[in-house]
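PROTEIN–LIGAND DATA SHEET

This sheet pairs a single protein chain with one bound small molecule, magnesium ion, given as SMILES. Inputs appear in the order they were entered. The predicted three-dimensional arrangement of chain and ligand is reported afterwards as a token string under its own label.
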Amino acid sequence: MAFLGLGKQSKTVGLDIGSGLIKLAVIDHSAGRPVLTQVSVTPVLADAIVEGEIMDPGVVADAIRGLFVSAGVKQKKVAVAVGGRDVIVKKIQVDRMSEADAFDVVRWEAQQYVPFDIEGVELDFQVLDPDGEGLQMDVLLVAAKRELVETKMALLGDAGLDAQVVDVDAFALHNAFELNYPAAMRGVAALINIGHEVTNVNVVQDGVPLLTRDLSIGTRKFREDLQRERGLSSEAADGLLQGYERSPDLDPYVQNRGEEIAVGVERAAAFLQTASRDSATIARVFCCGGGARIPGLTDVMSRRLRMPVEVANPIQALEVKNGAFGPLSVDEVAPLLMQVVGLALRRA
Ligand SMILES: Nc1ncnc2c1ncn2[C@@H]1O[C@H](COP(=O)(O)OP(=O)(O)OP(=O)(O)O)[C@@H](O)[C@H]1O
Ligand SMILES: [Mg+2]
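PREDICTION REPORTED AS:
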């Protein structure tokens, strides 16, 4: 599902504009299977993007432009995503009918779930059980404020780029997750993207992205904890957060914030219990994003949630061309690439 059609390129350039790091991934689809051919990242200046909102479009556009130049990527058509409060993903039931007929009905139904003016909304949907025989069918509805899509397109324009597809971030994550963890597509799993500012909690049931929630926690908060309470410089704090060892300086914050994230997962789980017909229980948790690398964090979450929590790898089952990562350390950067890989997986 997407808000814009795909073009004809054999390569898809995914662009994930995060508040901490802008990530670019190129996937070549010409061989009939996806091959990751290039990955590049660039940091975003502090506070240029706050809680998903682009405060300084000029700075961000320059950073994107610079990233494309230094990576030597010439293709202007890119796949991007929108997310956050103004995107709604919801599984609804409507009377069974052909997909062509369903559009108006879904649009009508959507009005009760979309807390903003339906006229200003980009809408898409997918019938989840097209071969089902019941009188009703399950439809996954996705709605985004049009303004959000327009702002993203304007930013791309400023960077000299053009949108090939505007996806929803939860779906992009899901895309990459599905390719790499097919076994997790049975039953209920949570995929948690712990970014610089925001943690997205996504619950997937039998391969369908069921629920998405954002928590205001990210690596930035951990860094601020360490600066404020341990007097560390931001470089020293980042060193600990991006390292491989636990440390007494770091452990208390990992404990607190890890539990905070786990509580977010528990809330999502509780919501599912009440909302779904076939009481769904989360069985496994996967983490990605820069925060997933924080030493000890997945252990804290696992202990609290009493279930396995692991760091998800977006290239676990993806073919990677030699040298695709350039000078980047694959182990260090891979967990941050789930969303951008999901975007680049969308093929023309
Ligand atoms: N190898 C790495 N290179 C750069 N940053 C890293 C690395 N490993 C961990 N980090 C941390 O992860 C953060 C970026 O993570 P990520 O790319 O998932 O966030 P984001 O997408 O920019 O943020 P958000 O989704 O909240 O807008 C950095 O700000 C840094 O704190
Ligand atoms: Mg992110």
